[in-house]
Design goal:
Elements lengths: L1 H28 L4 H6 L5 H11 L5 H13 L13 H36 L4 H15 L2 H15 L17 H27 L2 H8 L4 H38 L5 H11 L2 H29 L7
Helix pairs in contact: 1-4, 1-12, 5-6, 5-8, 5-10, 6-8, 7-8, 7-10, 8-10, 9-10, 10-11, 10-12, 11-12
């Protein structure tokens, strides 16, 4: 196990290096003078030259690249052009809000998806089954921004049941609409996969044997079928965490949620290059860590998986 973890961490290094390199190249070819962005149109040539020297922008591109790699390795993404705030500090301040949103969206998606999938499989070809799968297909197909705007229009602006946008005082009322928006697609995927896995398991010989022994249906489903059916479901739950972190960009923008996704969009609009680089690399790092944890969890969930 330890050797596998070390190997996965070593594999992640070139991937992260590739992300850092691509981000640097993209920011280097984007038109615009960072010094001019910081000073606006009032900056005189001497001041602009001094800022470029301080930022290292007067260096050859390859020297800027190695300087950037060195700073990233130390966790230093520079200073925001927009508000003169340290990028690393700004990202760390926003991560909590994003993780809170993603966590509750994943909890909601898992509970709703697993319950809907189990009931649909047990009551196959019933009205509930058809209705749940129709909703699941709609949930997979619906874009995040469309779901968010629809929820805002109905439950915030028309019915006035919950606040529309913002973080407020951190109350759960501000979480409701963003969590539902972010959790719809994972819930739909989990529901469809749970139904499929449950139907496959329910047709196995050991389940028929359990029924032939006269066990109650809830015991057959809960004790014998559900345990084996949930193994692939848990796998898809792990992979959906990465989706939630990326999907949070749109959700946080729609609901003015103060997370890292909204920070990235605001930086993009303002052409705040250090903040863009910092948020993109941070998201890539989170994505890699989550995928490594998911890979490691395979063996813990299913003992048949080996780490050779």
């Amino acid at each position: 196990m330890l050797a596998y973890i070390i190997r996965r961490l070593l594999y992640a290094i070139p991937v992260l290096w590739g992300v850092v390199t691509v981000v640097f190249i993209l920011m280097a070819v984007v038109p615009g003078d960072p010094a001019r962005l910081m000073m606006g149109q009032r900056g005189d040539p001497q001041t602009l030259a001094k800022i470029r020297a301080d930022l290292g922008l007067d260096l050859p591109l390859h020297q800027q690249y190695f300087r950037f790699l060195k700073d990233v390795a130390r966790g230093d993404f520079g200073t925001s052009y927009r508000n003169n705030e340290a990028v690393t500090t700004a990202i760390l301040d926003r991560l909590g809000a994003t993780f809170r949103l993603a966590f509750w969206a994943m909890v909601l998606a898992t509970i709703v998806g697993v319950v809907a999938g189990i009931v649909s499989a047990v009551k196959q070809y019933s009205i509930f089954d058809y209705s749940a799968m129709f909703i699941a297909i709609s949930g997979v197909s619906a874009p995040v921004f469309w779901v968010g705007l629809l929820l805002l229009l109905v439950f915030a602006y028309s019915l006035d049941w919950v606040p529309g946008v913002g973080y407020g005082d951190g109350s759960w009322r501000y979480l409701v609409l963003p969590v539902i928006t972010l959790g719809v697609r994972p819930a739909a995927l989990i529901a469809r996969l749970t139904r499929s896995c449950m139907l496959e398991v329910l047709s196995q010989d050991y389940v028929r044997t359990a029924r032939a022994k006269g066990l109650a249906e809830r015991v057959v489903v809960g004790r014998h079928a559900l345990k084996n059916a949930l193994i692939p479901v848990i796998t898809i739950v792990g992979t959906q965490i990465s989706y939630l972190l990326s999907g949070a960009v749109l959700t946080e923008t729609i609901f003015a949620w103060p997370g890292i996704g909204r920070l990235a969009v605001d930086a993009l609009v303002a052409r705040d290059f250090p903040m863009i680089r910092g948020t993109v690399i941070s998201m890539a790092l989170i994505f890699l860590v989550v995928n490594i944890l998911v890979d490691i969890s395979y063996g813990l969930i299913d003992p048949r998986v080996r780490y050779d």
